[in-house]
């Protein structure tokens, strides 16, 4: 008579899958932090890199009709007070539709990302590109590394992309349009900031790295809040 090994229970399989997801997340966070730390350390002691200068000049040679207007338009939502107003208005819309968890997570992502960006700029203190090296289309305040525009776009539009993916009906036109409209600004803003002479390419790369990590953290907190119904009553949690 042969004995058969027992089939693993669903709980065991679930715990194994969760452990693998946790390991992948830890590897992702670790690799991202190391990459950003190395880049930030180099930026702390270098006003710009050789490849920064070559890439920025190459991008600024693009003179097709409408390119400048497009690059300037892409940067508008990240100018001055606009990110604060957009974040507050979007959070208010979420609250209007009784999506308190989404409103809280958006504020954590965009607001927390802004704080992280300011602290890093103060710590690293890298100067902006200068007109003797590249074309600078406007005077920019504060420091250069990491890019504040890129940080905001990743944390704000990135969260909206995830929310649309999670909440809107699968395959719907509204979902597809929202995903595209949320992704495009994130993809274009790095080029916009370099083209306008506001940042070096490494400034935008550093911002993509650190804001991607912060967005991932915010989304993880969002999922935890949804599971625990932190910002919902029991009835609202069932509906969501």
Q: How many strands, which pairing sense, and closed or not: the largest β-sheet?
A: none
Report the sheet-strand fraction: under 5%
Overall pLDDT score: 88
Number of strands: 0
SS summary, helix count:
9
Count of the separate structural domains: 1
- DSSP helix fraction: over 70%
- Shape estimate: globular
The class by helix and strand makeup works out as mainly alpha
- The protein's oligomeric status is single chain
Distance between the termini: 52 Å
Which stretches are low in confidence, meaning pLDDT under 50 for 5 or more residues running? Answer: 233-238
Order of helices and strands: HHHHHHHHH
Radius of gyration: 21 Å
